[in-house]
Design a protein that fits this description.
heterodimer; A: 277 residues; mainly alpha; MetI-like fold; 13 helices; B: 263 residues; alpha/beta; five-stranded mixed β-sheet; 9 helices; globular
Chain lengths: 277, 263
């Protein structure tokens, strides 16, 4: 009797959790017919936001890869005092509220921010520009990549690196011909996560870059701005973002790059005694 | 060996526990000081008031009893349309409450105050703007509210009235509510922004106010109404009466709002 009750609670809890996570996504598609969704996608607001989002996210990801990869390799391959502090600082934006990131960027890179004077002396003002959107996206999305990249580099067998060096390859050649190919999977997964997070960035962007159609208004900002103007447009953009995220997730899983594969074997053998079927 | 390990484990726990304790104590301290601000002038309680962002400071002064949700009137109206649990809706225009009333979502709205649109520039005035006509200078960073937000609509009216629609090319951001416009100017990131005169007073010393000429001044009229789906209609009506009362209106005037027009 008690066992049956427990089993019931077990399945009920899982069912509730699944429904809770899926329902909002389903609701987006139920609320507006597919035809109207597609109609709304030709709306200039949506088109402009898509262009701004893709442009800023892609540039941000180039920066994340370019600066994040050496940083991750350094943190993964060297042991030095303060290393774990560095890793923690790199991960901090991951848990930081985006609005905090936005105000931080403003008081660092804004006109009257810490670096504002220096930037102005070379003729650069960042707030309200596409560069500001890119910076906000890079700031919030880079930890996802760097974290994953550190793990991927750490997983590379040091014996292979040593072998490459003893066979006469220099550190650069070893990195590009041995380490990078071996870490490829983890790097790809981290980058895809960072891309997805960047595409969804909202809080830091609206505070640091403002919102102007065709300039700084990204897809999430357009969702917010259109909420009170045209609910259909809001839903269309949301549906578009759901589809992009879903496509990204599925392609990652197909490429077996997703870091958290729930393996059927492990779950059976480890929790076999918990299955009531 | 065993003891040494458990002691080691205990030591390993000290830092995380201390940090967690620090985080919790910071949160409770913040919550406690926030609670201390709620002085006891609460008369109507148990209701939720959805009010325009420009009323952020004055409404809790009139009555600290209700729960408040401040934001762009247009956002609040959209939320009420989607069934948000509001009891009172106070808007920075008459259009939105009238629209909601026509749809049966709120009861008959009443005019409860008026306001004035002004241009604010940072005290340092980096773009040296001394009149609205200076907004035409190329390269100025002008921040306005989105067109759907009441203050955004008023801004467009003023610019049209003054023949200044060309300054729209200097707009660098269309913000989601009046207070976001204000903070971008107060921080000095924007060169100028259109807000209500009452908003400008909340950041003394940070912004300079430039008046909109009387002939171009739009009619900024605020309306409020009881939300039809409210289950606390009596308390909601009581709150509206409180705002309309002599004491309530006195507080509105003290905050810089204008008296209700006589009929």
């Amino acid at each position: 009797m008690r066992r049956a009750l427990l089993a019931l609670a077990y399945f009920l809890a899982s069912g509730v959790a699944l429904a809770f996570l899926v329902l909002p996504i389903v609701a987006i598609f139920v609320h507006v017919s597919p035809g109207r969704l597609i109609d709304q996608l030709s709306n200039p607001v949506v088109r402009d936001a898509l262009v701004v989002s893709l442009k800023t996210t892609l540039i941000a990801q180039v920066l994340v890869l370019g600066f994040g990869t050496p940083t991750a390799y350094l943190l993964a391959s060297r042991r030095f005092p303060g290393r774990s502090l560095c890793v923690t600082l790199v991960e901090l934006p991951l848990v930081l509220p985006p609005a905090v990131a936005g105000i931080g960027l403003l008081v660092a890179f804004g006109r009257f921010g810490l670096l504002g004077g220096a930037l102005r002396s070379v003729g650069i003002t960042l707030p309200f520009t596409q560069a500001a959107v890119t910076i906000a996206v890079a700031f919030v999305s880079s930890p996802l990549y760097v974290r994953q990249a550190i793990a991927a580099f750490e997983a590379v067998d040091p014996n292979l690196v040593a072998a490459s060096r003893t066979l006469g390859a220099g550190p650069a050649r070893t990195f590009f011909r041995v380490v990078l190919p071996l870490a490829r999977g983890g790097l790809g997964a981290g980058e895809a996560l960072a891309f997805a997070r960047g595409l969804g960035e909202f809080g830091a962007t609206i505070m640091f870059a403002g919102s102007l159609q065709g300039v700084t208004q990204t897809l999430p900002l357009a969702i917010y701005a259109q909420f009170e103007v045209n609910l259909d447009v809001t839903l269309a953009i949301s549906a578009l973002l759901v589809l992009i995220s879903l496509a990204l997730l599925i392609s990652l899983k197909l490429a077996s790059l997703w870091p958290w594969q729930p393996s059927e074997q492990t779950s059976r053998s480890r929790f076999g005694s918990l299955s009531w079927s | 060996m065993h003891i040494a390990r458990s002691r080691n484990n205990a030591r390993r726990l000290i830092l995380p526990v201390a940090l967690a304790a620090l985080a919790v104590s910071l949160l409770t301290a913040a919550a406690a000081s926030a609670g201390a601000n709620e002085h006891a002038s609460g008369r109507v309680s148990g209701i939720t008031v959805y009010a325009a962002a420009s009323l952020t400071d004055v409404f809790p002064q009139i009555d600290s009893g209700p729960k408040y949700s401040f934001g762009a009137s247009s956002t609040l109206a959209a939320q009420i349309t989607l069934g948000a649990p509001a009891d009172v809706f106070a808007s920075a225009n008459t259009t939105l409450p009238d629209q909601l009333h026509a749809k049966g979502l709120v009861q008959k709205p009443v005019v409860f105050t008026r306001n004035r649109l002004v241009l604010v520039v940072p005290t340092s005035n980096p773009a040296s703007i001394h009149s609205l006509y200076d907004l035409t200078k190329p390269g100025i960073k002008l921040v306005i509210a989105a067109a759907a937000v009441p203050v955004g609509t008023y801004t467009l009216q003023v610019l049209k009235q003054m023949g200044l629609t060309s300054v729209l090319s200097n707009v660098v951001s269309r913000e989601s509510d009046v207070r976001s416009v204000l903070s971008k100017v107060a921080l000095g990131e924007a060169d100028a922004g259109f807000v209500y005169s009452t908003d400008a007073r909340t950041v003394p010393g940070k912004v300079t106010v430039l008046k909109v000429p009387a002939w171009a001044q739009p009619k900024v009229t605020y309306e409020m109404a009881v939300v039809s789906s409210s289950s606390h209609k009596t308390a909601a009506q009581q709150y509206i009466n409180e705002v309309m009362s002599k004491a309530g209106q006195k507080k509105m005037l003290a905050a810089g709002f204008l008296a209700i027009p006589k009929k």
